[in-house]
Amino acid sequence: MEELLRVKKTPNEVIxxxxxxxxxxxxxxxxxxxxVNGKPLVYLDNAATTQKPEIVIESIKHYYTxxxxxxxxxxxxxxxxxxxxxxxxxxxxKEFLNAMSTSExxxxxxxxxxxxxxANTMCRAGxxxxxxxxxxxxxxxxxxxxxxxxxxxxxxxxxxxxxxxDNGELILDDFENMFSEKTKMVSVxxxxxxxxxxxxxxxxxxxxxxxxxxxxxDGSQAVAHFPIDVQKLNCDFYVFSGxxxxxxxxxxxxxxxxxxxxxxxxxxxxxxxxxxxxxxxTTFEDLPNKFExxxxxxxxxxxxxxxxxxxxxxxxxxxxxHEEELLKYATEKLLEVEGLKIIGTAxxxxxxxxxxxxxxxxxxIGTIIDTEGVAIxxxxxxTQPIMxxxxxxxxxxxxxxxxxxxxxVDVLVNALNKVKKLFG
Length: 424
Description:
Number of domains: 2
CATH topology of the largest domain: Aspartate Aminotransferase, domain 2
CATH architecture of the largest domain: 3-Layer(aba) Sandwich
Oligomer: single chain
CATH class of the largest domain: Alpha Beta
């Protein structure tokens, strides 16, 4: 038993609570020490993916050197160790979201697969038929548009879109007027990846539930910035990707209410999700296994759990205060750049600043400031309908995390001023 406990010990068991210190936090992320074009890296593309703390990287190495085996199927030592670590990861996600049960936590590749899973299984279950309607919003990521469009093309359903105002906020009065007996689903983003808007999802959920309509929330941009409580939000589904909350790529989470997950059919077929297979018939496992066909991303789940424990080692209030001050500082400094306009000025935002500069294409901005070691994102950010709404081909986007500092903002602004000089 002592040997078993020794080998099962992983980095996620030694993370302790500590005060927030930006200088020490930066040291937790090895990639922040690299140089780009001879300049220190200033990483401001966190809405695309976050960097990984060393303890997450070490947890991946630990798994492959101490626990590597398939899960749920073997009686030998390594398989039991891997299964324990993987299911402990599920428990950590359950606690992080405040779900009722680990059976409500489905491991997937990411938020995209989670949304596809729900759209496809709802269609196959006959919950959404020809003439029915699904409500999404104008600020959705393509991952929360295309799966529903594909479903609508298959069965003749229709998408309806909640409009946004010039500030980038949903017009909720219009939202409630969209409901009818045809409304079968609402799927909206918790926080916008291109505008930064934090939506009033509790109000959205309450309105939808008045009409007995389930709600899916895309939390990909929310989970890394503030605590999530699915019971308080009262949502029916919540999805996010691990790589946007300091975990590995290729792993994500679908939370779903038990009553819905039990009624939906399996998304894929294969090993580990079956109870009995004959050539005539197959019966399926209970939740969560029913939706996890084949060998899962075991190390991804373990790494994600370590990332969540790392995040929880800080007081969320400290992280929120730091990011709010950073967003305020960045907004003020960016607006000092002549000709710069911020796109997305909602009252409640995560730390995202999308902007344009008069007469300069965002691609040129991104390319030039890269020579200064500054990494931002340019383009449509997988939200082409938003670009169309503002009549823009693209924006430049600086997105911050708690390991960013005001000094990072200063480097960004100085780089932008160099862009201005270059273009006269």
